[in-house]
Amino acid sequence: MKESIERAKKYITEKVEITPEIGLILGSGLGFVADDIENAVLLEYTEIPDFPHSTAPGHEGKLVFGKLKGKNVVALKGRFHLYEGWNPETIKFVIYVLKSLGVKKLLITNAAGAINKSYNPGEIIIVKDLINFQFKNPLKGQNLEEYGPRFPDMSSAVDLEWASKLKEKVRKLREGVYIAVLGPSYETPAEIKAFRKLGADLVGMSTVPEVIVANHCGIKCLVLSCVTNMAAGVLETPLSHQEVMEVAKKVKEEFSKIVFHALEVL
Ligand SMILES: O=P(O)(O)O[C@H]1O[C@H](CO)[C@@H](O)[C@H]1O
Ligand SMILES: Nc1nc2[nH]cnc2c(=O)[nH]1
């Protein structure tokens, strides 16, 4: 893995001058955030040695480097989900590449279903904690001690200080617990009822592996979920990825504004 990280890093640093401080992982239909990056330099995932490629709809597969709200950033316009068939270690590799490029903080975004019935489609929620219902861990296998410990602590997996600074600025933001499933099928109503009993407010098929690796290698994370739909069984309508992407598109301005605030409070 070390050689692959070095190869990817070498390719990227030869093409891009800036050192990104903040990484942004953009969820389904949320890639528009990268369109506001100034002096953008774009790299296709497919051109970077050993880098995985995006296969999920609504995930373009580009790294975008540049300035956002005065900060040097790199945005991942497209993430890697386990349901695509990627090995969990692929996610470790991607986060390690970000770390090797200089990323200190990660703003992770996702589209999620609302288990909490008081949430509304289009609402943006700060994730305060996570449940790994994927039962896979990206840190399995040989540990690279120079990146982080074998047994990382997960008692504050997200950066609550960053979250509270954002909440001070955007008072209406509510918080919730995100549960990650493997997917790609959406949940049954019985699963959603069970997840509610477990204490989950939001459900999706991503984010948790990214947070685990980031936490392990000392990158602080803020997670923002865009509620794109009420989870299965809450309403009578069936779920579709089409709807997920449409709702994400509708909240474009509001979502971008909150991301800008999240960068400004740093
Ligand atoms: O988590 P992101 O990538 O935002 O996408 C969410 O939306 C897709 C399902 O509609 C799944 O990929 C789920 O994880
Ligand atoms: N698993 C899951 N992922 C989602 N992504 C967006 N909405 C949902 C949902 O309801 N369930």
TrEMBL record:
GO terms for molecular function: purine-nucleoside phosphorylase activity. InterPro entries: Nucleoside_phosphorylase_d, Nucleoside_phosphorylase_sf, Pur_Nuc_Pase_Ino/Guo-sp, Purine_phosphorylase. Keywords: Glycosyltransferase, Transferase. Residues 22-263 form the Nucleoside phosphorylase domain. Signal peptide: none annotated. It comes from the Bacteria. Pathway: Purine metabolism; purine nucleoside salvage. Its EC number is 2.4.2.1. The purine nucleoside phosphorylases catalyze the phosphorolytic breakdown of the N-glycosidic bond in the beta-(deoxy)ribonucleoside molecules, with the formation of the corresponding free purine bases and pentose-1-phosphate. Belongs to the PNP/MTAP phosphorylase family. NCBIfam families: PNPH (TIGR01700), PNPH-PUNA-XAPA (TIGR01697), PRK08202.1 (NF006054). PANTHER family: METHYLTHIOADENOSINE/PURINE NUCLEOSIDE PHOSPHORYLASE (PTHR11904), PURINE NUCLEOSIDE PHOSPHORYLASE-RELATED (PTHR11904:SF9). This is Purine nucleoside phosphorylase. It comes from Thermosipho ferrireducens.
